[in-house]
UniProtKB/TrEMBL annotation:
Residues 1-19 form the signal peptide. SUPFAM superfamilies: FAD-linked reductases, C-terminal domain, Nucleotide-binding domain. It comes from Salvator merianae. It holds the Pfam family DAO. This is D-aspartate oxidase. Its EC number is 1.4.3.1. Residues 5-324 form the FAD dependent oxidoreductase domain. The keyword Signal applies. Belongs to the DAMOX/DASOX family. FAD binds at residues 36-37, 43-44.
Length: 341
């Protein structure tokens, strides 16, 4: 096989997991992860890292289910190993509650999580404004720990990490055979993909070690996600808003909404505010592309646009992207072979 030089652009959960899958399936390649932000400064660092899918309207549901199932099973394996603590992965049980009974009482991902059931009348008593609820156990990544753990695994496999801002993917043409684009919201300027747009999320990270159960309102707006080091209180979904500075009034309304669901939170003292821009798109872009400029060609694999659910499907999409990279290498070999004849 050709010793291909591969660059992965992006060091959020998508770039790092994609790079790791590539380094495992193509151990003979030279691999570099290039990004202008690494942990703890990416959007992925802001995420609560809960494995609860977010629906992409233009990606087939069976596909989303497969990505979620693969991601869940992969992380459950890590969670059941001595690596769990270093990787920041835990199981967490809780409730998703609805003010109105949803059309789909049983979501497509119900058999991918553990112990999915409807909440009992006794459980619902805690939420007098809600009429229906689902109880289940899922996984949560402590995002900065998980990203750091992925970086460590990559370095062990011989990959290089490079801090650099890319203006145009063609800058990488002479140094790499294949470029994998995992640039998240950066894709808007980098690929000129105007389909990708930010959905701003503001969250509070608080110290409330007595809160062990997650609570999520089915509207997706208000949630309480306990983690190993802190509890994430959310949130907002603000379309086309690029503001990275926290808004104090928004923090107050998030806190009030969460206290309505979990009154014990009003005792919280220490509040840390974070903002991230979800790289939103109607479908995840996961495909090969060949760009031609004059006599030069650039082999690209895209893996971006994971919106509000990047953690939930990252491993499934990373595996698929690694397979696309493998197909590119086979193509490279065939064209070299032809050139020799
Ligand atoms: C408040 C909030 C809560 C969330 N909670 C959850 C959750 O509980 N569960 C879940 O599944 N998802 C959640 N998400 C969504 C999740 O965070 C995203 O889907 C995921 O982080 C996207 O990962 P990414 O790697 O594509 O992007 P990013 O983490 O943004 O990484 C992009 C990378 O590309 C690099 N880059 C971009 N442009 C360039 C350039 N021109 N040159 C060089 N490098 C470049 C950046 O430096 C960065 O390293 C949440 C998001 C937010 C904002
Ligand atoms: C994260 O950002 C801070 C502040 O800009 C910077 O000092 C730090 O070096 C960055 N960390 C990494 C790993 O890039
Ligand atoms: C990645 O793809 C997006 C969308 O096509 C594009 O906007 C962005 O410029 C690409 N990134 C790079 C580094 O080329």
């Amino acid at each position: 096989m050709v010793k291909a030089r591969i660059a992965v652009v992006g060091a959020g959960v998508i770039g790092l997991s994609t790079a790791l899958c590539i380094s495992e399936s193509l151990p003979d390649c030279s691999l570099t992860v290039i990004a202008d932000r690494f942990t703890p400064n990416t959007t992925s660092d802001v995420a609560a890292g809960m494995l609860i899918p977010h629906l992409y309207p233009d990606t087939p549901v069976y596909q989303q289910k497969q990505w979620f199932q693969e991601t869940f099973d992969h992380l459950l394996g890590i969670c059941n190993s001595p690596e769990a603590s270093a990787a920041g992965i835990q199981l967490v049980s809780g409730w998703q509650i609805f003010k109105m009974v949803p059309n789909e009482k049983i979501p497509f991902w119900s058999d991918a999580v553990l112990g999915f059931r409807f909440m009992t009348g006794k459980e619902m008593k805690k939420f007098p404004q809600h009429r229906f609820g689902q109880a289940f156990t899922t996984l949560k990544c402590n995002s900065p720990s998980y990203l750091l753990w992925l970086e460590e695994r990559l370095k062990e496999n011989g990959a290089h990490l490079q801090k650099r801002r890319i203006k145009d993917l063609w800058e990488l043409h002479s140094d790499y055979n294949i470029i994998v684009n995992c640039s998240g919201i950066g894709s808007r300027t980098l690929m000129n993909d105007l389909e990708i747009r930010p959905i701003r999320g503001q969250v509070l990270k608080v110290q409330a070690p007595w809160v062990k159960h997650f609570i999520r309102d089915g509207d997706g707006l208000t949630y309480i996600y306990p983690g190993v080091h802190d509890v994430t209180l959310g949130g907002t979904r603000q379309k086309d808003n690029w503001e990275l500075l926290p808004d104090p009034q928004t923090s107050k309304t998030i806190f009030d909404r969460c206290c309505t669901l979990e009154p014990s939170l009003s005792a919280v003292q220490d509040i840390n505010v974070k903002v991230g821009l979800r790289p939103s798109r109607s479908a995840v872009r996961l495909q090969k592309q060949t760009e031609v400029r004059g006599s030069k060609t650039l082999l690209l694999v895209h893996n971006y646009g994971h919106g509000g659910g990047g953690f939930s499907v990252h491993y499934g999409t990373a595996k698929k992207a690694a397979q696309l990279v493998k197909e590119c290498i086979v193509g490279l070999e065939m064209s070299r072979h032809k050139a020799k004849l």
